[in-house]
Amino acid sequence: MKNMLVTGGCGFIGTNFIRYILEESDFEGRLINVDALTYAGNPENLKEIEERFPERYVFIQEDICDADAMRRVFDAYKIDTLCHFAAESHVDRSIAAPGAFIQTNIVGTFNLLELARKNLDRLVLFHHISTDEVFGSLGPEGYFTEETPYSPNSPYSASKASSDHLVRAYHKTYGLPVTLSNCSNNYGPYQFPEKLLPLMILNALEGGSLPVYGDGRHVRDWLYVRDHCTAIWRIMKAGKRGETYTVGGNTEMENIGIVEMLCDILDGLPVPKIHCARRALIAFVKDRPGHDRRYAIDSTKLRRQLGWQPEESFETGLRKTIRWYLDHRDWVDRVRSGAYQQWIASHYGE
Ligand code: NAD
Ligand code: DAU
User: Fold this and answer.
1) Pocket around ligand 2: residues whose beta carbon is below 6 Å from it?
2) What pTM, to 2 d.p., does this model score?
3) Nearest Cα to Cα of residue 142 among 303, 302, 294
4) DSSP state of 45
5) Is the C or the N end of the chain the one with fewer CB within 10 Å?
6) Which atom of ligand 2 is nearest the CA belonging to 90?
């Protein structure tokens, strides 16, 4: 792996992955980050990386749906490895406006696969980042594994399922060296404050309403983002080509339990007082259409075959995450206001 293309590196997981790869991992090559900078992409997250690794880190603002632009990137940087994060990632947005999900998640992935196929002679690996949501919803018992049949329920998960199938098909049909990972809910630094945890942390901090969908008893399996990054790198290095690995934290939590936990943690921290105990801010609101009831991952394959295990418990990860958002109020203000678009213009001359 000499020239690794990371797509969507200015988003939440991509940012954490690039930091992990350049600061902590044994990757020695060059990393090319291609990101279209949608509302979810923020190159400011990697400004320090750009300064510290000028020889090894390149940022290019491009859309993976633009096949010609992506071909130029492949040729110019002799890409031999891909780690493909770029996607529209928020379920509620996919319900409101599915078009962009079809374009980026399906057509964009197809473009990258075609380029990988055309450069098969030098291709070391195409790693595809996917989600446990492709498996649909679990009842009260059982876990998703690599054998679970696909049954996506939202436009987001259907588009991710489609991209997974394309990746597998390119392996079977053209012999593309691929690996896939299907991960549970990530949380941690740099997550855009539309997702449950950062949204609730910030609203609770400011005394705003905490909108819990439906009865709040929906279950997600939470994984601290750095633990996801170590899993991805382990799979990229040692995973069997053509195979899928499910990744999870073994941390099932009901949404209401999470919101209550973070309210109690914030009440106990030296943060500005509000007029009530933070639990009183919880408001049960209309449910998300097609809302999956429960996700839970069995990551035995990844643990046994590749020796991976997560480091954070939910409590330690949540405390770190809350601390990060408390310490990065200027980042929050900028991504909320859209001011980082001006930052992009001043740094990239647009
Ligand atoms: P995110 O929304 O925070 O970031 C997505 C990034 O992709 C942004 O930087 C955005 O600018 C970029 N992007 C979007 N469309 C693009 C395009 N057409 N061309 C180039 N770049 C584009 O998402 P995330 O939470 O970091 O998720 C990253 C990947 O991980 C996604 O594929 C998602 O499906 C998957 N995933 C996420 C989670 C989670 O809990 N967040 C869990 C499992 C899997
Ligand atoms: O499971 C992996 C998936 O996790 C990823 O593939 C997605 O990209 C990522 O967005 C995430 O999807 P979810 O829909 O699970 O995450 P979200 O943070 O939107 O919601 C988590 C749970 O909290 C879900 O049951 C819906 C609920 N929720 C969410 C929001 C934003 C609320 O009750 N209130 C809210 O305001």
Assistant:
1) 89-91, 131-133, 184-185, 195-196, 199, 211-213, 218, 220, 255, 288, 295
2) 0.97
3) 294
4) G
5) C
6) 10
Among the listed residues 156, 224, 245, 325, the single catalytic one is 156
Task: Assign 62 to helix, strand or coil.
Answer: coil
pLDDT digits (tens, 9 = 90+) for 18-63: 999 999 999 999 999 999 999 999 999 999 999 999 999 999 999 9
C-alpha–C-alpha distance, residues 257 and 248, integer Å = 19
- Give 3-state DSSP helix, strand, coil % of the chain, rounded to 5: 45, 15, 35
Locate the ligand 1 atom nearest the alpha carbon of residue 108 and give its number: 18
Asked if 267 is an active-site residue, the reply is: no
Structural domains of the chain, ranges and CATH numbers in brackets: 3-192+224-254+291-313+331-348 (3.40.50.720)
Catalytic residue among 35, 44, 88, 132: 132
Contact 297, 219 (CB under 8 A): no
